[in-house]
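Why do we bother with a discrete structure alphabet at all? Because it lets us treat a fold like text: something you can write down, compare, and reason about line by line. To make this less abstract, here is a complete entry for small monomeric GTPase. Read it the way you would read a sentence in a foreign language you are learning: slowly, and without expecting to understand everything at once.
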Amino acid sequence: MASSIRVVILGDHKVGKSAVTVRFLTKRFIGEYSSDIDLLYRSSIKGEDSVTDIEVLDTCTKPGQPVKVEETRVSWADAFVVVYSILSRPSFHAARVLIQGVNRIRTSAYMPIMLLGNKTDLDPRREVGVDEGHQVALEHGCQYFEVSAAENVGITLAFQAFLREARIVQHQKTALLKRRRSSLASMSKRLGAMFGKNKDSSNSNHSNSSGSGGGYSGGISGGYSGGHYTGGGGDGAGGRRGSIDVRDLREMGKLM
């Protein structure tokens, strides 16, 4: 079974977001990154019984720039990884702010979040304790791991657990969407039958009357088209039509 997941990597400046991302996707470590733009990576991750096509948006945070969560990123993403450095308490506070931002912007639907404490290879210089990371994870209901991108410690385990949760959540959302589609189709049929009976009754009354008059002709239809819900209302020959669409960040020119 194949699935597709979009992940956004968030965190303060110099916490190792790119190092974590590249280590997970390529198993390589690059110590210094000079990119000043967001980077989008694509890869396929093979599991025991599935293949996951993954898009990872590695966000850029410039020095002195306050951390924030953009609504377009929350709309685009299926899951978030929030990275901080165990050597930097300010980066830990920033991670908490970012998690709160995601939870504030997202819809009522559950969105997987993983909190990563990076740079465990430099543990003697630690400023943030393991118990503090656990506490934040408990407060916000997210997964928590401490890792080292430099020495490839814990990266694979953390992302495997995270992607497993993201796939489960995605499958649950898909099942819910199918049930809603079935419910809408059933409702549409019932309403169509009801209006059909009313029209037949109106035509019958018209044919039995001695005067002239006009019968109501209209209908209500709804369904899903191209992944978007469309609904109509019977306003004579024409109906109202609307759509709900989540725009992809790539279409908005936000990535490069």
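What the structure line is telling us, in plain words: Helices lie at 17-26, 71-76, 89-105, 130-140, 155-208. The radius of gyration is 26 Å.
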